[in-house]
Structure formats: structure tokens, C-alpha cells
Design a protein that fits this description.
It contains 13 helices and seven strands. The protein is mainly alpha-helical. The longest helix is centred in the first third of the chain and has 22 residues, at about 25-45.
């Protein structure tokens, strides 16, 4: 009985030795092809939109539902004094508003800190005798979107070296973007680093926030199809934080504005197109 067993063992060893001659480089090449194949399969199966949804998205590009919300924002803004009042508050000429808006967030001496457009509008509303408007209100989102749309086709020109306040805000924003925190130990960078971009998460491709076509700082406020509402960039940050089990930063806080400064810097040179349209 031992002889058949020995023969079997010898055959097994011979087969093993034969396959060990298989070139390692060929194996690695085959493995890469396999990984590429399965990556493509995953992307095609879990792509963010069905053909039907994509057709709806294309239609919305021509007829963005947020246009109605911007009209409401325009009405509220004009009741506050409109472009003339805003230019006066910012101490610039009215004709310079579009280019100036394209540089937000900015340090504002009257307010005494780096602020986004929302906080400027909040201060403007207060000056006009309005009750303090919540930064999270739909009417505030509408006004922010309308005011930023005044800079449509202008290129993002934020200059983080304009003053020490803005530079420090940018540095804080960069730290927050890369800081791992919360129940899942994630950071903004975890989903938006260059080696992660284009992978699929929750049926959506993860974007490079500075890429053409994304340029978050130039395309928010935007209409979100999944929320059927107009949202600001800071509000989008909050949604990401909630999903990542992080402590959600308040709208308008120094940390949240700093994060907007950092992400807006990534869109430097891109044309503003408001309202944006996002899934």
C-alpha cells in the first residue's frame, strides 16, 4: 500500500514544481488584469445613475429646479437693499461685486473674522431691519445662491495670502480636511485623496473636489436631486460628517468656514456656475 502512496506523492511534487516555473511577472500581470476587470465590473454595476436617472439629470441641466429658488432669493435680497447695499457693506464699487464675490470666503473687518457669503448676508439682513436669519434656513440658502450667481462665469480668485487671517483659516481648513475623527475614523481626505477618487461609495463615484466639472467651490450652492432641495457647500459638509459618524460642525463656525476656504482654494481658476446640480 505504501508504493501507490509514494507514486502519488511524487506526481504531486512534480506538478507543483512545474507550476512553480510559471514566471512571477506573468502572474502579477494576470493579477492586474483581473483587478482591472473587477474594478470595471464594479463601476458599471454600481454606477451612480441608471440610464433613466441620467436622462433626467441631463434635462435638469437645461431646467434646474433651483432656478425658482434663486428667484425667491433675489426677491428677498432686493428687499434688503440689493447689490447697491451689499457693495456699500463690503466697501467696494457695485460694478466690482461679481469679481469680489468670486473671492469668498474672505476676511471682513466689520464682522472681524473670515466669513462666507452667508454670514455677510446675515449681517446685511440685520442692518436692513430683518430678524436674524438662521444660516440653515431654506430662505438663506436661496439668497446665498442668488448672490453667488451674480458672479457666474467669473473665475474663483480666492487669495489665501491676502491677509494673515485668511491664511490661518486656510491652514485650519487643511488640518480639518485631513483629520481623522468620529466613529469610523475617517477624514474628508479618506474619500477625496487622489488614490481613492473615482472609486464607488454608496453608488456614487468619489470626486476630486478641485477637478473641472466638480470644482466644489465654484458649483455650490446646488440643487441636490436626492434631497429635492437647494443646499450650500457647508450644508453638504455637514451631511458628509453625519454619514461618517463625526461630530457635525455648526454652519458659520470658524472651523466650517475654514473648511470652505480650503475646498474653495482647490477650485481656484474655475468658472462659477450657480446653481449647480448634484445627485
Amino acid at each position: 500500500m505504501k508504493v501507490p502512496f509514494m507514486i502519488f506523492t511524487m506526481i504531486f511534487v512534480a506538478i507543483a514544481l512545474y507550476f512553480m516555473q510559471f514566471d512571477l511577472n506573468d502572474f502579477q500581470a494576470l493579477n492586474k488584469k483581473s483587478e482591472k476587470f473587477f474594478k470595471n465590473v464594479k463601476s458599471s454595476i454600481q454606477y451612480s445613475m441608471t440610464n433613466k436617472d441620467r436622462a433626467i439629470y441631463e434635462d435638469m441641466q437645461e431646467d434646474n429646479p433651483a432656478d425658482i429658488m434663486l428667484s425667491n432669493g433675489e426677491l428677498i435680497f432686493n428687499n434688503m437693499g440689493g447689490e447697491k447695499k451689499l457693495a456699500s457693506f463690503l466697501e467696494i464699487k457695485e460694478k466690482d461685486l461679481p469679481k469680489y464675490i468670486a473671492g469668498f470666503p474672505r476676511y471682513n473687518e466689520k464682522i472681524g473674522m473670515v466669513v462666507g457669503l452667508d454670514q455677510v448676508i446675515q449681517a446685511l439682513a440685520y442692518d436692513a431691519g430683518y430678524k436674524k436669519t438662521r444660516l440653515s434656513s431654506s430662505s438663506m440658502f436661496s439668497v446665498i445662491a442668488y448672490v453667488k450667481s451674480l458672479a457666474n462665469d467669473e473665475r474663483i480668485n480666492i487669495n489665501i495670502k491676502e491677509n494673515i487671517h485668511l491664511y490661518e483659516s486656510y491652514t485650519l481648513g487643511k488640518n480639518i480636511f485631513h483629520m481623522k475623527r468620529g466613529g469610523r475614523g475617517l477624514s474628508c481626505f479618506s474619500c477625496h485623496s487622489q488614490d481613492i477618487v473615482d472609486r464607488v461609495l454608496r453608488t456614487q463615484k468619489l470626486p476630486n473636489l478641485g477637478d473641472r466639472g466638480v470644482a466644489a467651490g465654484a458649483t455650490w450652492p446646488a440643487y441636490r436631486m436626492t434631497k429635492s432641495s437647494l443646499r450650500t457647500l457647508q450644508r453638504r459638509f455637514q451631511g458628509c460628517m453625519k454619514n461618517s459618524l463625526m461630530k457635525v460642525l455648526p454652519l458659520g463656525s470658524a472651523e466650517m468656514v475654514a473648511l470652505e476656504v480650503y475646498v474653495t482654494k482647490k477650485a481656484l481658476g474655475h468658472k462659477i456656475a450657480i446653481p449647480g446640480l448634484k445627485r
